Amino acid sequence: MLDLKYITENIDEVILKLNTRGGDFSHLRQLIDLQEERKSVIKEVEDLKAKRNGYSKEIGELKRQKQDASHLLLKVETIKSEIPALELKLGKIDEKINKELIVLPNIPADDVPVGKDESANIEIKKWGTIRHFDFEVKDHTQLGEALNILDFERATKITGPRFVVDKGLGARLERALINFMIDTHAYTHGYTEIIPPFIVNDKSMYATGQFPKFKEDAFKLEGFDWYLNPTAEVPTINLFRDEIIDNDALPIQYVSYTTAFRSEAGSAGRDTKGILRQHQFNKVELIKFARPEDSEQAHQDMLANSERILQLLNIPYRVVVLSTGDMGFGMSKTYDIEVWLPGQNMYREIGSISNARDFQARRANIRFKRSKDAKTEYVHTLNGSGLAVGRTMIAVLENYQNQDGSITIPEVLKPYMGVEVIK
């Protein structure tokens, strides 16, 4: 959520920056009038309460002197009847303001490229050498089905489209990737490992910005105010909802594993083949809570941590910075890591590394104090894929395939797999 005071004091700048995300945000000027009206009503209420308190003192003095105070008692009763009406008016103004703020996206950082969609994204680096194959390359679905490690047909029978059954060494490969990612981030990069609930409540979804914008993409549990977790970002950020974090505890960083669930309502017809875009997938997520002055460096560090997974797997990738029109609702700046997939002969997203600044912290009311007597401030929250496990599995299968259809296991995964080749 954006700061109302900042919006009203910098209205032209805010509208200009939000417009770069697509849409027209000129209607936000009404917030200035609403804020002024809000201030006016608050002053009326405070003035009336001050009068009431003054009259109460006078009444007390008159009663001590055994004098008539009925005229003042009448004034107090009048004030008592006026205050609730003003408070109701104030509540309606607050409701109008909050209705505007809850649907506003985050303000893009100054160095984010301006553009309407992914065509304006800027590549900032490439890593690794794309392998030259002297045989016809297969995609992960062909490889997985031929090796009997991915079963799409039976998954569709069990549930429906966009699900898969991992079998045998396919199941072991996915489990190996999860353990490898978590071990690397926990032991090498210093993140604290957690496995949060896979089910979250309505407040948690609003706090991180999934609701109300992406409510149609969520799986709701019938009869409960609960939703299947769309990403580990949601439960992990909400660990500190409505809390004040001790300054000495910052920065806090977690590596969080969950199975994620998305209806993909807004992506009908896209990537329906294989495991690139599924309703259920495993994900290792990185989460940081940082002081405002430290969040930019924390963002760079998190990007490097996610990149390190692909470097250790020795799989080519590139990093792009997303444009204003391609960036997530709650993010101020996002890097996408795109891995090379020989089966598609192109780079595809495997992880997003984002800085939300204080946007999520305001929605979730997550604060910190620099000292005992200091004023509370909002922390900055960051999240990043560390990585999407299914897409990393695709990258391993396709980049490490052999002419006979077997898959050579990357060196770093061999201790987890117990075999050197899937055949």
Brief descriptors of the model:
Helix Hairpins, elongated, alpha+beta, 423 residues, 17 strands, BirA Bifunctional Protein, domain 2, three-stranded mixed β-sheet, 2 domains, eight-stranded mixed β-sheet
Helical content band: 25-40%
**Roughly what fraction of the amino acids lie in strands?**
15-25%
> Can you say what the CATH homologous superfamily of the largest domain is?
Bira Bifunctional Protein, Domain 2
Structural class comes to alpha+beta
What letter string, H or E per element, gives the SSE order?
HHHHEHEHEHEEHEHEEEHEEEHEEEHEHE
Strand order of the largest sheet: 1-10-11-12-15-9-8-4
Overall CATH class of the largest domain: Alpha Beta
Give a short account of the largest sheet: 8 strands, mixed
Distance between the termini: 51 Å
Number of helices: 13
Examine the secondary-structure arrangement and name the CATH architecture of the largest domain. Answer: 2-Layer Sandwich
Number of domains: 2
How many whole angstroms does the radius of gyration measure?
27 Å
Would you report the number of β strands? 17
Mean pLDDT reading: 95
* Coarse morphology: elongated
Low-confidence stretches: none
Q: Any idea of the CATH topology of the largest domain?
A: BirA Bifunctional Protein, domain 2
Write up what this structure looks like:
The mean pLDDT is 95. 40% of the residues lie in helices and 21% in strands. The strands form five sheets. An eight-stranded mixed sheet has the order 1-10-11-12-15-9-8-4. Helix 7 crosses helix 12. The relative contact order is 0.14. It has 13 helices and 17 strands. By secondary structure, it is α+β, with helices and mostly antiparallel strands. The radius of gyration is 27 Å and the shape is elongated. Strand 13 and strand 14 (377-378) form a beta hairpin. The protein has two domains: 4-101, Serine-tRNA synthetase, tRNA binding domain (Helix Hairpins, Orthogonal Bundle), CATH 1.10.287; 118-422, Bira Bifunctional Protein, Domain 2 (BirA Bifunctional Protein, domain 2), CATH 3.30.930.10.
